[in-house]
């Protein structure tokens, strides 16, 4: 069994909805060997093979798998987090056990949308990045014409939580992000 156990280690407020939470769970061992097989059988994943991350989109929620931990976003409560983690554990183990019958997919899969990025920017359209609006910045960023570090306000304490989620999403999609700001 690739994933025998997990433990919720952090629960944080969700940015999109203050009544929801963001959950980080450490997993036993390393689970990255299942990622290309999960990427082959699930629709709409974002896979970053060099960084060993796989983001799964399901029912409007985002689950990001790392080699040794899992992040769940837009979660109702710890009960829902437990249900999703049980689902993920079974999915990861079943997929890995059946890997001989699955053609692994190492492609990046779904691309990030400008709107996904825009929702996590400060949203003040302060123009400090040189763009007229945050949406214009998001469009350029998704097209890889500007770097996330050009949004100075995002790196202030006020936007720490938004920054954590956005940098994790960008990292999972293969964008360059300052490693000192990434979650463990
Ligand atoms: S610097 Fe950041 S907050 Fe200001 S307009 Fe650009 S993207 Fe928006």
Short synopsis of the structure:
By secondary structure, this protein is of the alpha+beta class. The chain contains five helices and six strands. The chain has helices at 35-41, 78-97, 114-118, 134-142, 160-172; strands spanning 6-13, 21-27, 46-48, 53-58, 61-65, 69-75.
Explain the overall architecture.
- The chain is built from five helices and six strands; from the N terminus they run E-E-H-E-E-E-E-H-H-H-H.
- By secondary structure, it is of the alpha+beta class.
- The longest helix is centred in the middle third of the chain and has 20 residues.
- It is globular and about 50 Å long.
- The model has no long low-confidence stretch (mean pLDDT 89).
- The site of iron/sulfur cluster has 15 residues, from helix 4.
What order do the helices and strands come in, and which of them pair?
Layout: E1 6-13, E2 21-27, H1 35-41, E3 46-48, E4 53-58, E5 61-65, E6 69-75, H2 78-97, H3 114-118, H4 134-142, H5 160-172
Antiparallel strand pairs: 1-2, 2-6, 3-4, 4-5, 5-6
Helix pairs in contact: 1-2
């Amino acid at each position: 069994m690739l994933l025998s156990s997990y433990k919720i280690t952090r629960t944080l407020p969700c940015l999109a909805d203050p009544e929801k939470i963001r959950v980080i769970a450490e997993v036993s061992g390393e689970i990255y060997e299942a990622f290309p097989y999960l990427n082959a059988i699930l629709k709409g994943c974002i896979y970053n093979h060099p960084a060993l991350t796989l983001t799964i989109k399901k029912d409007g929620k985002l689950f990001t798998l790392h080699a040794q931990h899992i992040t769940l976003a837009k979660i109702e409560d710890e009960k829902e987090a437990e249900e999703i983690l049980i689902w993920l554990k079974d999915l990861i183990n079943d997929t890995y056990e059946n890997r001989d019958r699955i053609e692994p997919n190492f492609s990046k899969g779904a691309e990030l949308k400008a709107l996904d990025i825009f929702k996590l920017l400060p949203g003040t359209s302060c123009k400090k990045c040189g763009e007229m609006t945050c949406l214009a910045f998001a469009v350029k960023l998704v097209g890889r014409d500007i770097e996330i570090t050009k949004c100075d306000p995002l790196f202030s304490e006020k936007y720490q939580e938004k920054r954590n989620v956005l940098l994790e999403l960008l990292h999972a999609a293969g964008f360059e992000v300052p490693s000192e700001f990434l979650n463990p």
